[in-house]
Amino acid sequence: MNSFRLVLLLLAVSLSGCASQSNLRNNLPVAEPVQTRFAYEIELGKLNDFMRQDIAGDQLGELLYRRGALYDALGLRTLARIDFNHALEYIPDLANAYNYLGIHFTVLGEYQYAYDAFDSVLELEPEHGYALLNRGVAAYYHGRYEHAQTDMRGYAERDPTDPYRVLWLYLAEHEVDAEQARRNLADYYADIPESEWAREIIGVYLGEQSIREFLNSDFNDNASDNPNTVAERLCEAYFYLGKMLQRQQRNEDAKLFFRLALSTNVLEFVEHRYASVELARMAKTATTNAAN
């Protein structure tokens, strides 16, 4: 077994619940967490030194935006938001800064601010690569599923062979019409190239293989000599599988999978960001149910 292969660890978790649940929790693949990207830290230090000079106008706005992006990549979200807001003071039409702020507002549950930010992105750049997805995600977590479905469909139609676009569309469509969502997912699945590794996640959704079979497969073979790629793939896999388990009311397994997604430390991925949102929402629901 070569160095990049997943390290199988027996997770010390409770074996309560039905047999299928406890079996699922044993011998789950765990990747080495992604370490802080030192190149980002070095660039951040250089930016801070450079910004001590007399800089103003658009140049300062661009530097503030870049520093905000670095803070965000390092998980320093509050500092990132401060810089994105300051960047917009110098460059009011900086679409990417609005996009970042919209994501942050979504994670914080400030949905109207998120919509305003993403609307600004789309006004400035109608073909922006991610604004439709991000506005759709905001609508999804806000419970506005038909709006989420519309945005996700628009995003997916730009590249229907992208399994991540298809998965997000399915999540939104499932809340509106579960049977139709499954049929649509199967249609998309047929056209996604087998070279797209995340296609296998959709295969699990469609019952082509079990979660255990998927996790025990060599889906990481194309990630040889790159442990960060293994971590990134597991971050994605655990998030989407967690969503599937959540839908099946297997909440303890879902929470475990969301925690495993977070354990990869892939801070820049939407799956990592929203795994924390999922856990917070599940904790809030459990507290509300207990109070009732």
Automatic annotation (TrEMBL):
Keywords: Cell membrane, Lipoprotein, Membrane, Signal, TPR repeat. One of its GO terms (cellular component) is plasma membrane. SUPFAM superfamilies: TPR-like. Its main location: membrane. Homodimer. GO terms for biological process: negative regulation of DNA-templated transcription. TPR repeats lie at residues 95-128. Residues 1-19 form the signal peptide. PROSITE patterns: PROKAR_LIPOPROTEIN, TPR, TPR_REGION. Gene3D superfamilies: Tetratricopeptide repeat domain. May be involved in cell division. It is found in: Cell membrane. It comes from the Bacteria. This is Lipoprotein NlpI. It comes from Pseudidiomarina planktonica.
